[in-house]
Write a structure and sequence with these properties.
By secondary structure, the chain is an alpha/beta fold. The chain has two domains: 2-118, Rossmann fold; 128-226, Thrombin, subunit H, CATH 2.40.10.220. It has six helices and 13 strands. A hairpin with an 8-residue loop joins strand 12 and strand 13 (200-206). The longest helix has 16 residues, at 211-226. The radius of gyration is 22 Å and the shape is elongated. The relative contact order is 0.13.
Length: 228
């Protein structure tokens, strides 16, 4: 179980995202101030703290100093959120933080930094059955097909068009929560037809999936996996 302490207003923005933070192996604590963050960390020994540089009663410098100078508290990754100014950047350097992210916060950047600091393994092997329409193009020729299963590394779909291994395609599809995914993919497997009336079936791997789309697919796959 990974424990994460996040500033309340920062988490309020992240809650709208489908991300690895929704996993059952992540336990989230929120804190209104850095003083509350410190108290939570003393009680829970978090793996990651996402704190603001300025809160009432305690600054980010004091918080980080109390954490880094304590042998029981120092083994934690720390992300500091501050304004996009040179002075705040200099203050962050004094905090000995693992990362500094300027506000307004780009959620994709924050999630990527958090993901790396927590060393969360991506569940690329989880593949769940689906029934979704896919639209795409190969060599500028459009096609429409149907996705049979999906994971965060790729998917299996079928369509009438003929594609070949190593072909690169552009494709788009929508998850049940209406998240619209657009990405490039490579054909890595061509399945033989069982009968001459079958449609062609192709296995593809995503090759430039954004952090936001990866998180959305991962959340969807894990939710489906838990119900199978």
């Amino acid at each position: 179980m990974k424990k994460v302490i996040i500033a309340e207003d920062i988490y309020a923005n992240l809650e709208r995202e489908q991300s690895f933070l929704n996993r059952s192996v992540i336990k989230i604590f929120t804190a209104a101030t850095n003083e509350k963050t410190l108290a939570l960390h003393r009680a829970e020994k978090a793996d990651l703290i996402i704190a603001k540089l300025d809160t009432p009663e305690m600054s980010g410098e004091i918080l980080s100093s109390l954490i880094r100078d304590d042998n029981e508290l120092c083994k934690v990754s720390l992300i500091i959120i501050g304004s996009h100014t040179e002075s705040d950047f200099e203050r962050c350097l004094q905090c000995k933080a693992n990362a500094f992210i300027s506000s307004p916060v780009n959620n994709a950047v924050l999630l990527q930094e958090s993901y790396q600091l927590l060393h969360i393994a991506q569940r690329r092997s989880y593949r769940v059955p689906v029934s979704m329409t896919i639209h795409g193009a190969s060599k500028k020729k459009p096609f429409t097909g149907y996705i049979e299963n999906i994971s965060i590394s790729g998917m299996l779909f079928r369509l009438d068009a003929i594609l070949y291994e190593s072909d690169t395609i552009k494709c788009s599809f929508s998850l049940p929560d209406s998240t619209h995914i657009t990405t490039n993919a490579e054909i890595v497997r061509v399945l033989e037809k069982e009968t001459k009336h079958d449609t062609n079936r192709y296995g593809v791997k995503f090759i430039d999936l954004s952090t936001h789309f990866t998180s959305a697919i991962e959340a969807f796959v894990e939710k489906q996996y838990q119900h199978t």
